[in-house]
């Protein structure tokens, strides 16, 4: 029986949480030559529109994810990670983040991943994300692909 992960809002600097974010960074570095940490520094400004979550199964932290503000209406999905593929961990995290984004008055979510990361692109597209023009610091990076999703309940 596959247990559904529980999602909890957490502090990414919490000692118990650091292991999963470090695992994510190592995974990214081995696969793409960059750990992604540089694009996750500004969360500490105590912005109430920032959310970091962990996923737990039987008291083991098995995943994480975050949203942060890009502007008043747009949030960016960051640091998505699932320790065990095929257990709906990523989907559960993303659904939680999307629901939380709506309560924070975001109308859209965007994200960036690597063009090489076919599994991530496929995952996000299955969740309703569509390829959008690269934004922000990703604008002129050919190795980056950006995706977005409207959170408008009526669309």
TrEMBL record:
This is GNAT family N-acetyltransferase. The lineage of its organism: Bacteria, Pseudomonadati, Bacteroidota, Flavobacteriia, Flavobacteriales. It comes from Flavobacterium azizsancarii. Gene3D superfamilies: 3.40.630.30. It comes from the Bacteria. Residues 7-152 form the N-acetyltransferase domain. PROSITE patterns: GNAT (PS51186). InterPro entries: Acyl_CoA_acyltransferase, GNAT_dom.
